[in-house]
Design a protein that fits this description.
20 helices; mainly alpha; 422 residues; single chain
Length: 422
């Protein structure tokens, strides 16, 4: 791909201008990745210079790029969300607001086009890793002194001091740390095979730091469910059979040791059963128990409108009507059933679910192959699919933007690599 671009430069004196034309939007995306673990408002503002810089790229092939399934499907889901406002009975402000969580998917085709033509994706990956490393170190400090948490100064409304939570919440933090820890395994193994032991040792130390924070400071149950599966995926795809079996065995032994050494881990796992008993037997609000009630009601809502759903933004109104005369967990009113499939099904029925899963599988197929870009992209998609069983992570802010950046940047790099090989 780089050779092709070099041939397109008409004169050597334009080389600097040509390079700056593509490096500027790449640096803007790196800034977005740098801000993502820390701030939501900063990320939105960082999008503006990137969109301006993107407009100055060579966009002659952009319409053709949009015709690929990996680009069409995100657009189709957003269009369905927009059209779904027509048959929703929610107030119009709620309908318009409900388009927002899906609208970020429109950035994926832009990123794919940009990084397919000038693959500076390594800058973005590095920026996200550096930012998460700083957050991990700060989280250890907050675990020692919760008063250091930035949530004291950045959060809106009442703030509850939580040990180890530097900004936002423990779910976002755990997802970011789990992603970094597993993503670092591939370059670590590659560097060891090439004899670059010092850099590999640095990456291994960072991965251990992320895992240690999750095991001994704070971790979400979603991350606990997805993390072992992601490790198995890596072992099956990138290790020989004997090495993979050894890695799985070592992971089992490490799990036993961590279970013995980490009270935080045992308490987090114990909440699964505790939440179930609290909500099912006592009709009280809890994390997992409430989710089970949300899912039960959402399935009933979907059965009432199986093809097109109840329309964009209709979820909260449906839960409000179902809560009449109820108490406890059955009276909870939410705008998200905490499951991506049900979130889509309630609003847009089977048509939305088909597009959602087609999107996931189209992006999975994009990352068949070797290389860091394919590994990062595959990891992002698999993590999102798994965590979306317990949350609506494609539509959530931090996890949704991780998906957008990961698929868009890694997808563009993977396509560029395939073009060079062909």
């Amino acid at each position: 791909m780089t050779e092709v671009l070099n041939e397109q430069r008409p004169n050597s004196w334009l080389a600097a201008i040509w390079a700056a034309r593509y490096r500027t939007p790449a640096r803007s995306v790196a800034l977005i990745a740098l801000l993502l673990p820390w701030t939501t408002t900063g990320l939105i503002f960082a999008l503006i210079p990137w969109l301006i810089a993107f407009a100055f790229l060579d966009l002659r092939e952009f319409p053709r790029s949009l015709l690929r399934a990996i680009c069409l499907l995100p657009i189709a889901l957003v269009l369905l969300a927009a059209i779904g406002t027509l048959w929703s009975d929610a107030p119009w402000p709620d309908r318009i607001h409900a388009i927002g969580p899906a609208a970020k998917l429109l950035v994926i085709p832009l990123l794919i086009y940009q990084f397919e033509r000038w693959p500076f994706g390594g800058w973005v990956f590095s920026a996200f890793l550096v930012s998460c490393t700083a957050l991990m170190l700060y989280s250890f400090a907050v675990a020692v002194d919760p008063a250091l948490s930035l949530k004291l100064y950045l959060s809106r409304g009442p703030y509850k001091v939580e040990s180890g939570i530097a900004v936002r919440n423990y779910i976002d933090q755990s997802q970011e740390f789990a992603l970094c820890a597993i993503a670092l395994v591939y370059p670590s193994v590659s560097l060891l095979r090439r004899g670059r032991y010092r850099v590999a040792a640095l990456f291994v130390a960072l991965a251990i730091g992320f895992l240690a924070n999750m095991m001994f400071v704070v971790v979400s149950r979603t991350a606990l469910v997805t993390l072992p599966i992601l490790i198995v995926v890596f072992a099956l795809l990138h290790l020989r059979r004997r090495t993979a079996l050894f890695a799985v065995g070592a992971m089992g032994l490490l799990t036993v040791l961590l279970w013995t050494a980490s009270p935080r881990l045992r308490a987090t796992v114990a909440k699964f059963n505790g939440d179930y008993e609290v909500s099912i037997a006592g009709n009280d609000v809890s994390g997992m128990g409430s989710r089970l009630e949300f899912w039960r009601k959402s399935l009933a809502f979907t059965a009432d409108a199986p093809l097109l759903g109840h329309g964009t933004g209709a979820i909260r109104g449906l839960f409000a009507r179902a809560a009449v005369g109820e108490s406890g967990v059955r009276a909870e009113i939410v705008g998200d059933p905490h499951n991506q499939t049900l979130n889509v099904a309630v609003q847009w029925g089977a048509s939305g679910v088909v597009i959602l899963y087609a999107l996931w599988f189209a992006h999975l197929s994009l990352f068949r192959g070797e290389g860091l870009a394919c590994w990062v992209g595959l990891l992002v998609v698999v993590q999102n699919m798994l965590s979306s069983l317990l949350n609506s992570h494609l539509f959530d802010f931090a996890e949704g933007w991780i998906y957008v950046l990961g698929v868009g940047i890694a997808g563009g790099m993977a396509l560029a690599a395939k073009t060079i090989r062909s």
